[in-house]
C-alpha cells in the first residue's frame, strides 16, 4: 500500500513540529510548503536526517510551489502571521484572510480530495474563510482548537488530582481560548464526573474554577513566557490526533471547529463542537443539550465568531 501524503502549508514552528510528529509516527510522506525562501527545504532536510536515528521511513520534502501538494490525503494549514505590536485586529484579519485565500485556491487546484485542518488564527474565522476559498465540502474542512483546549484542561486537572493524564477526559465547546465553553459536568476522571470528585473531597469547586480560567487563558500564558511566538508542541499534537483519526478511520470523538448547519441553532458558521472524525471527514456532529450557563457561554462565543466574520466580509468582498 502506498504511503499517505500529508501536506503542511506553513513551515514555521507548528509546521516543523507537525512534520517531526508525522515522521516519528510514520503517518505518511510529508510536503512542507512555505513562502519563506529555503525554510521548508532546510527543515525538510534536517528532519529527513533525523530519520535514520529515529528509525522512521518517510519522504519529507520542502516546497515553494503548490504543485508539490498534488494528491495530498491531508492538508494542515498554519500559514499566516501572528499579531505584532501595533497591529490592529482588522490588520491581522486582512493579512491572514489574504493568506487563507491563496492557500484555499492552492488546495482547490491540487488537493481537492484532501481532509483539511486549519490552525491559523483567529481560528474560527480562518477555517470558515478557508472552506469558502477552497470551495471544498464542509465535512472535509475543520479547525483545530478544542483538542488543544481540552488537552490543557486535562493536563491541569491531572496535576490537581494527581492522576494520569490518560484517565482525564475533558469536554469543551465554543470558540478558541477566552471564548471556550468548558463543560465541567461532562469532564471526567475514569468516567467519574468532576462534580462527583468535588463531592468526594478530591478537590474543591474553587480549584476547578481556577483551572477553567487558566485553561481559557492557556495560549496567552505561553505567549507571555515565550515573549516571541506562541505555543507549538501541543497545537501540533492536537492536529495530528485529528489527522490520524481521519487517515486510520478511527472515528474518534474530538472537539473541533466544525461547520454547523442548524446544529446548536447555528447555521453557516464554524464553531467548536464535538465531532466524529473518520474516513469521510466530519461524519457526525455530537449535539448535547446545554444547561443555562453553558448555553449563555456558547451563545457569547457564537456572537464573537459572527462579529469577526462580519468584519471579514467588510474587509474582503470575496467573502461577502
Ligand atoms: N503561504 C504559505 N506560508 C505562509 C504564508 C503564505 N501565504 N504567509 C506566511 N506563511 C508562513 C510563514 O513564512 C511562517 O513560516 O507561515 C509560517 C507561520 O509560522 P510561525 O510564524 O512560526 O507560526 P506558528 O507558531 O507555526 O503558528 C502558525 O497557528 O496557532 C496559530 O496563531 C498561530 O496563526 C498562527 C499559526
UniProtKB/TrEMBL annotation:
Family annotation (InterPro entries): L-lactate/malate_DH, Lactate/malate_DH_C, Lactate/malate_DH_N, Lactate_DH/Glyco_Ohase_4_C, Malate_DH_type3, NAD(P)-bd_dom_sf
Q: Provide the GO biological process annotations.
A: lactate metabolic process; tricarboxylic acid cycle
Query: What residues sit in the active site?
Result: 176 (proton acceptor)
Q: What does the UniProt record say this protein does?
A: Catalyzes the reversible oxidation of malate to oxaloacetate.
Family affiliation: Belongs to the LDH/MDH superfamily. MDH type 3 family.
Report if keyword NAD is assigned: yes
Q: Which domain of life is it from?
A: Bacteria
NCBIfam families recorded for this chain? MalateDH_bact (TIGR01763), PRK06223.1 (NF004863)
* UniProt KW keywords: NAD, Oxidoreductase, Tricarboxylic acid cycle
Gene expressing this chain: mdh
Binding-site positions, substrate:
83, 89, 121, 152
Q: Which reaction does it catalyse?
A: (S)-malate + NAD(+) = oxaloacetate + NADH + H(+)
According to the UniProt entry, its GO molecular function terms are: L-lactate dehydrogenase (NAD+) activity; L-malate dehydrogenase (NAD+) activity
Q: What is this protein called?
A: Malate dehydrogenase
Positions of the Lactate/malate dehydrogenase N-terminal domain: 5-143
Amino acid at each position: 500500500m502506498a504511503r499517505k501524503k500529508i501536506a503542511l502549508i506553513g513551515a514555521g514552528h507548528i509546521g516543523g513540529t507537525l512534520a517531526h510528529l508525522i515522521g516519528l509516527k510514520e503517518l505518511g510522506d510529508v510536503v512542507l510548503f512555505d513562502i519563506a525562501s529555503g525554510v521548508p527545504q532546510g527543515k525538510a532536510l534536517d528532519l529527513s536526517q533525523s530519520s535514520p536515528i529515529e528509525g522512521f521511513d518517510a519522504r519529507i520534502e520542502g516546497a515553494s510551489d503548490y504543485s508539490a501538494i498534488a494528491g495530498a490525503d491531508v492538508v494542515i494549514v498554519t500559514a499566516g502571521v501572528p499579531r505584532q505590536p501595533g497591529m490592529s485586529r482588522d490588520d491581522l484579519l486582512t493579512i491572514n484572510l489574504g493568506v487563507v485565500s491563496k492557500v484555499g485556491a492552492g488546495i482547490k487546484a491540487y488537493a481537492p480530495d484532501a481532509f483539511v485542518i486549519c490552525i491559523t488564527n483567529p481560528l474560527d474565522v480562518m477555517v470558515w474563510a478557508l472552506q469558502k476559498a477552497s470551495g471544498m465540502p464542509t465535512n472535509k474542512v475543520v479547525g483545530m482548537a478544542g483538542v488543544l483546549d481540552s488537552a490543557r484542561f486535562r493536563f491541569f486537572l491531572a496535576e490537581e488530582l494527581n492522576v494520569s493524564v490518560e484517565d482525564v477526559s475533558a469536554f469543551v465547546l465554543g470558540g478558541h481560548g477566552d471564548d471556550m465553553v468548558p463543560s465541567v459536568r461532562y469532564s471526567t476522571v475514569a468516567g467519574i464526573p468532576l462534580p462527583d470528585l468535588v463531592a468526594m473531597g478530591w478537590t474543591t469547586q474553587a480549584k476547578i474554577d481556577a483551572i477553567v480560567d487558566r485553561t481559557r487563558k492557556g495560549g496567552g500564558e505561553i505567549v507571555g513566557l515565550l515573549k516571541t511566538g506562541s505555543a507549538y508542541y501541543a497545537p501540533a499534537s492536537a492536529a495530528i490526533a485529528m489527522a490520524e483519526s481521519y487517515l486510520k478511520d478511527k472515528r474518534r470523538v474530538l472537539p473541533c471547529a466544525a461547520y454547523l448547519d442548524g446544529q446548536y441553532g447555528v447555521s453557516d458558521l464554524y464553531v467548536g463542537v464535538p465531532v466524529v472524525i473518520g474516513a469521510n471527514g466530519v461524519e457526525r456532529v455530537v449535539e448535547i443539550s446545554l444547561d443555562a450557563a453553558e448555553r449563555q457561554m456558547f451563545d457569547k462565543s457564537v456572537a464573537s465568531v459572527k462579529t469577526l466574520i462580519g468584519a471579514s466580509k467588510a474587509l474582503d468582498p470575496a467573502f461577502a
